[in-house]
Amino acid sequence: MTVLKTSLRNFFAHKGRMALSAVAVLLSVAFVSGTLVFTDTMNTTFDKLFASTSSDVTVTPKDAKDGETPQSGLPQSLPASLLERARSAEGVKSAEGGVSATNVTVVDSRDDNVGASSGAPTIAGNWTKNELKSMEITSGHAPRGPTEVMVDADTADKHGLKLGDELRTIAQTGDIRARIVGIAAFKVTNPGAAIVYFDTATAQRELLGETGRYTHILVTAAAGVSDAQVKENVTRALDGTYKIQTAAETADENRKEVGEFLDVIKYAMLGFAGIAFLVGIFLIINTFSMLVAQRTREIGLMRAIGSSRRQVNRSVLVEALFLGVVGSVLGVAAGVGIAIGLMKVMTAAGMNLSTDDLTVKTTTPVAGVILGVVVTVLAAYLPARRAGKISPMAALRDAGTPADGKAGRTRAVAGLLLTGAGALALYTAGTADQAGDGALMLGAGVVLSLIGFVVVGPLLAGGVVRVISAVLLRAFGPVGRMAERNALRNPRRTGATGAALMIGLALVACLSVVGSSMVASATGELDKSVGADFIVQGNQRIVPQAERAMQKTPHLEHVTRYKTLDATLTSPDGAKDDSGVTAADPTYAQDLRRPTTAGSLADAYATDAMSVGSDYADQHGVRVGDTVTVAFEGGKTAKLKVAAITDDDTAIDQGARYISITTMQKYLPADRIPPNAILFAKARDGQEEQAYAALKKALDPYPQYQVRDQTDYKQELKDQIGQLLNLVYGLLALAIIVAVLGVVNTLALSVVERTREIGLMRAIGLSRRQLRRMIRLESVVIALFGALLGLGLGMGWGTTAQKLLALEGLNVLDIPWPTIIGVFIGSAFVGLFAALIPAFRAGRMNVLNAIATE
């Protein structure tokens, strides 16, 4: 009970310091809890959707995968004759055929895309009775003919669509023009899909290319018959040659596919939360170390009157327990708010998430509180252990904890060894011949060098702080020298405070180097290799009508078709490879300048010829003149002569095996030939601007495709990587905020620790302004110390990562110096900001009271 009272008294005696540490715990726990609530809510949303849309039993083609379209561009389908066989199965109440296609684009009368924009699919299909389980018609009626279409209410609201408006659905077989005759609303939350419905005959003809076929058959079980029994009966009726699933199995399969995507989001966000926790550990260690140091005399008195080491240790840990509980409980509550905020952001981006589905599992607050408490108590263990080791006489004689020179030397040696091991691992990664092996060594090098820098931080603090001070603080005269001396007074504290900032900035620097190098490498590769003036591509394969529009565009010298084909290759050594081949027009040799290590690429576009990449050739001993057997999926098997071996030291089309369009047509039936993945175009000499304008105009009716010249392509690549980096920087901001709190806490406790010293300096003439400046300069030095270590470490990581990317063809190392310098200067402002409150409080101290402080 005495330990509890002592802990409570000390806890509330330092409310401000504890509050800052509690905020660090709160933010970290909030991020973890918010991530779990957010992903659980998304899972709930999708679970409800899948449960409401699944039929009792569903029949699909055996190899069909939800959301995937075969290379032909048409969905896999079933003969309509199966419908009657399914209906006749025992235990079946009813069965109906469904049609669904996701490789479509829906545009309004202004050719604006009204489909999903958040990564969710745009779906076209036929209206069935099964749809009534998840939707209800709120306006108009279901489509009854080829000129009528029904749209979901979310899409109608988002794009201002109403009854009578015309929509054009761009499908592989052609454009479907129809007027909206009905609007249907979801009974459950629609995560963001856009859906258009046609009558069955129109859907079959326009989406599947022929009537009398369905993509799936929906079976409803009779009363009292289980889904499993109906599945068994339907399987027997259809000879078991199709994929047949119960409602639960269909929902589980859909849930698994979505779950893989959600897991990536969850674990990525939890990773950044872990970084924030790591930074928070330094804050908590510093807080309790300084509080223990300031209570040394008090601890000595406790030991002198009979308190054991265990009781002193326990007293500090109980304070940490209070801190962890308070911070964690508040963090769990804040996490729910973060989850709701994320849902609002996702809704604004086009992915609808309703707070009605907000899911807070019991495990979430439990995990949040346990994690926060355990991390806080573990972080406080070292200061608590140090407090317990203070002898009564030493504590009564000194005002601070006794220095442990041996421990400091051991720490320095351990830090240097870890740093050296990390540097060796990074060097090994940078000289690796295989990206997989190098990635493992890179991970080891990052972890070891980070731990090494953290451990050796106090040793580095002395030298680095002196260098920074010599450059920045000498201009401030005596005040600058005092700030330097204060930063050097306790190297362990300065090292821990700087390390908290170092972690976040190291990751920022590493990712900046990697991102900048990727952009520089890709743009350099474009300049060197791409001869085409224009590139046309989108999220879907290019429909024939868009290709025809491009072929008719004036001012173009040629248009190159580019198709990816599913095929299995058998090399002369008997090895099989199912990564496919690429079919293109001979002009592709002009549009992409691929150097060869043997043979001529132009010869590879002859009939019954092909090229292979140098990696494939080396692995299987393939030479020019050898024959490779190519089994085309859905077509014949060909024996093709290797006419060229292309150099795989590139980031574009690395490993591609080229054949001509003519060769493809020889071995694939017309209905199995896929649409183009990309189209390339070359303008006539001197007509580049006219061709660019004409091409954009020709493809205006097809907004799913982008027309880019090389400048556009480079800028889009830069923007995409920039957006990704900005997202990562935003997530790392949490760790930076916690690090700033650490600087604030360190300075605040340092001011209290030096109260008498500050009073004496004020008494001999130091002004309040000079005092505040001294504290601000000390803060700037600590922040720049952490920034210098972090940026240096991060550039080392990024440089090594670029060496691994060079194995994939990204050969240019580009250090983004403006970003690095900007972050370094920004760190100085972070230091100034962190010092505002401690400097203000120090300036308000009463001189006489400060001098009288023990």
How does this structure look, described?
Residues 272-392, 731-846 form the ABC3 transporter permease C-terminal domain. Residues 19-236, 497-696 form the MacB-like periplasmic core domain. The chain contains 26 helices and 26 strands. The chain has 854 residues and is an alpha+beta fold. It has four domains: 1-56 and 248-402, no CATH class; 62-241, no CATH class; 460-534 and 704-854, no CATH class; 541-703, no CATH class. The strands form five sheets. Strands 4, 5, 6, 7, 8, 9, 10 and 11 form an eight-stranded mixed sheet that branches. A hairpin with a 5-residue loop joins strand 17 (567-570) and strand 18. It is globular and about 95 Å long. The protein starts with a helix and ends with a helix.
The share of residues in helices is 55-70%
Strand percentage: 15-25%
Q: Please report the number of helical segments.
A: 26
What structural class do helix, strand and pairing data support?
alpha+beta
How many structural domains can be distinguished in the coordinates?
A: 4
Subcellular location: Cell membrane
Main location: membrane
Region (Disordered): 57-78, 568-588
Domain MacB-like periplasmic core: 19-236, 497-696
